Amino acid sequence: MLLKSNLQKWSGLLFAVILLLLLMCVSIVYGYTDTTWKMAIDAFTSFDGSNEHLIIQTVRLPRALIAAAVGASLAIAGVLLQTITKNPLAAPEIFGINAGAGFAVVITVTLFSLSNLQIFTWISFLGAAVSFLLVYIIGSIGRDGLTPMKLTLAGAAMSAMFASMTQGFLVINETALEQVLFWLAGSVSGRKLETLLSVLPYLIVGWGLALLISNKLNVLSMGEDVAKGLGLKTGMLKIWSGLIIVLLSGGAVAVAGPIAFIGIVIPHITRAVVGIDHRWVIPFSALFGGMLLLIADTASRFIIMPQEVPVGVMTAVIGTPFFVYIARKGFNK
């Protein structure tokens, strides 16, 4: 643990906020269209209608805000999943939650040709909820009840099923394929600010509820029996945690598509920095998650310029080695 005292943690939190804002500024300034810091400032203080100012205001600013919000949401969802399942590999994408939300959106596009943002939001939430419920039920079946290994296998099975069904629907509808293919790879490119605003209230509720239950998550981390002995209603806490996970994961997928590995990587990094107290883990994870997605998105613009790599591909490249490390460490103790 790098930050031990409360003073160090508060200082670290302030530094993380400043760094997040700086990365958002970098995301706004740098890209295929050559702009400068002065142009970015002028775009908001003395807008002149130029192409550069339009790109900064209508393309890059929404993109930076979306990356920060989605990264924070996926990171917090990963923290909650790992805590309530006691599984170091738990994350929305591993448990099939992202895949379920994505599949629900694809069905909406292919069967009903709908493109309304508000409908996408609710459909994404529904898909995330159904997927989470199925994984939890399947992982609980059997003599030993709920175990980290069974949950991981159930999540992998659900992810594979939803991914296969998604591909099947897209094969029979080429128009839908063109509409959602880039979205399915996970991307914050080309998203409008209205897209974020349509889900932001749900994300804010999810962030707030996660902070409210942080103390109870600390008790649950001590073990199920100990938590019950201290009077904690563990079943109700898990239901609330599941609701928060669905809000955050479903909202993130509705905006940016299924982006992987943030929910796995960030909670482990955060615990290495601030320890296991969820009162600190949750806010730090939110900031670190936003930072990681901003870095990945900014880097994705320069790899094959003038084309862009979907940010979901970038996070997969970053997260896959980390996933292998955590898998070996978590199941070989």
TrEMBL record:
It comes from the Bacteria. GO terms for biological process: siderophore-iron import into cell. Gene3D superfamilies: ABC transporter involved in vitamin B12 uptake, BtuC. The chain crosses the membrane at residues 12-32, 64-82, 94-113, 119-139, 151-172, 199-218, 239-266, 278-296, 308-327. It is a multi-pass membrane protein. Keywords: Cell membrane, Membrane, Transmembrane, Transmembrane helix, Transport. GO terms for molecular function: transmembrane transporter activity. It is found in: Cell membrane. Its main location: membrane. GO terms for cellular component: plasma membrane. Belongs to the binding-protein-dependent transport system permease family. FecCD subfamily. This is Iron ABC transporter. It comes from Cytobacillus solani.
